[in-house]
Design brief:
334 residues; alpha/beta; five-stranded parallel β-sheet; 31% helix
Length: 334
């Protein structure tokens, strides 16, 4: 595979390079040429990858290099402007932004859940929102078995979900430096919770909340699922957490539900409340797996289940999922 990473110098771009270097999904021998791409301000800078130093190139130069696959992690505006240019040149784009997720003709993929939605000829493949990825991985097998009628989701999202600007705001606030720096949030995030993710829409939900609604339905291929969500930004550097209540269409056995979750690839169950063992962001950081705990029947409803889901939003929530999609494409002979 001849692989380009667009946004290679950014926060998620750096994690993509790290995941690639680890070789868990794509071996080093699978990548016969690596092409780092970034904005004009970064062109010519040197970047290390697999013990080799590369010079960052611009987007038009990268298109001329004709990579087989380009992983985009440079924001929605860049993706809207350039993804189709890459696709027209015969390059398959894996896009980590929100630009293409709701387009009917673009597959929205969690490799463990719906790899079948990638069809021959697809040149743009969307990576879901970080919170959606960890949710979909856990609930997809439960939906297949019991049928999901309704989801009530509350997320507790780390500042890296807002990129480097969110990370730096928390860092500066913890150093008591409040002025002179760009801000991701309208309020102080340190020692605080902000029930505001993205922009507020006409229905009084935020864009981050509606991503959970629309993307989950698309990935599970079921628009009948009733979904409501509340997104909260929390003063945590890395790791998104979710409290999820699931109402099923059919009766379920709690032990069977736990077994289904535990046997799903990419999931680790951490669920021993008597020993104070449950998933936490600090334990998920740097890991590719999605962690699930506090699995319990909802005593207020005979067909409902509660659980707590945690994952590293920069890895499985972004970089790792994108690299896993690239690994799926690598099964094709270039």
């Amino acid at each position: 595979m001849k692989l380009a990473v667009v946004g290679a110098t950014g926060l998620v771009g750096g994690v993509i390079l790290k995941v690639l270097e680890e070789g868990r999904y794509l071996k080093n021998t699978d990548i016969h040429q690596f092409i780092p791409v970034a904005s004009q301000a970064s062109v010519g800078k040197e970047i290390a990858f697999n013990t080799t130093t590369y010079k960052v190139m611009g987007i038009t130069e990268a298109i001329a290099m004709k990579p087989d696959v380009a992983i985009f992690s440079a924001g929605a505006d860049t993706s809207k402007q350039w993804a189709k240019e890459f696709a027209s040149a015969g390059i398959t784009v894996i896009d980590n932004s929100s630009a293409w997720r709701t387009h009917d003709e673009v597959p929205l993929v969690v490799p463990e859940v719906n790899p079948h939605t990638i069809k021959p000829g697809d040149k743009i493949i969307a990576n879901p929102n970080c919170s959606t990825i960890q949710l979909a991985l856990v609930i997809a097998p439960l939906h297949r078995k019991f049928g999901i009628r309704r989801l009530v989701i509350s997320t507790y999202q780390s500042v890296t979900g807002s990129g480097l600007i969110g990370l730096n705001q928390l860092r500066y606030e913890r150093l008591n430096i409040f002025t002179g720096h760009p801000r991701a949030y309208p309020h102080c995030i340190d020692l605080n919770l902000i029930p505001h993710g993205g922009i507020f829409l006409d229905n009084d939900y935020t864009s981050e909340e509606m991503k959970l609604v629309n993307e989950t339905r698309k990935i599970l291929e079921d628009n009948t699922i009733q979904i409501t969500a509340t997104v909260v930004r929390v003063p945590v550097y890395i790791g998104h957490s979710e409290s999820v209540n699931i109402e099923f269409k059919r009766n379920f056995d709690l032990n069977e539900a736990k077994m289904i979750i535990a046997n799903t690839s990419g999931i680790v169950v951490v669920d021993d409340p008597s020993a104070s063992r449950y998933p936490m962001p600090m334990d998920a950081e740097g890991k590719d797996e999605v962690f699930v705990g506090r699995i319990r029947r909802d005593d207020s409803h005979p067909r409902a289940l509660n659980m707590w889901i945690v994952a590293d939003n920069l890895r499985k929530g972004a970089a790792t999922n994108a690299v896993q999609i690239a690994a799926l494409l690598n099964k094709v002979s270039y």
